[in-house]
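Q: Here's a chain of 221 amino acids. Please give me its 3D structure as tokens.
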Amino acid sequence: MGFGEDRELGKGASPGVDHPRVGPRASEAVALYLDGVIDGTAVTLASAALAEAQRLHLPLVVIIDTYGGFLAPTDQIVEMFLNAGVPVYAYIPDGAKAMSAGAFIAMSARKIYMAPTAEIGAAEPRPPDPKVVNYAAARMRALASTKWNDTRVYIAESFVRENRVLTGAEATRLGMAEPPPPDGWNFVSVFRRDPLSRLLNAVRSCVDLADAFIGSRADRL
């Protein structure tokens, strides 16, 4: 990310991973890393991170890097963020992606921050059952409508209807995202999967991606 390190590496962070810089005007926040498959583990992690942010009365910054996940856990996270008692911001770093389920989660945040080479979109369910596609399109449209009342709503819907993908540079130019704050965030607490869970999640991502292409899963985003 080009930002430096957390205040405390011991609170869920890992050495050798870039984190938002602690600068003189950096805003304090709680960090939640959502990577790999959006599943039940992601819901548990998101719930714990949001509870901590609300306890500290700090914003929650959700760092997204995912190809997608499952419909039910995605809806749970979206509803959690929509009803949060603190601001929730989505951040998609350089080279990262908020594909499919990740796009819905990003859209549920109060603001979306994207690096220029980040990507968002490709949210058509797999397999594309018409009923599920119509639900997902309406869901995306409703989320976008909480932010805008112009063509950006239909661009967001095209993530589902047309599997459209935007880069961070494109989303920023369209006014659907912002560049990350110049002074970054000062993460006072970090929530992410433990190393073993991340490894198992990576393996599962490969298996689930294959299932999605084969079309054997009806609840994939």
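Q: Can you summarize the key feature?
A: The longest strand covers residues 27-38.
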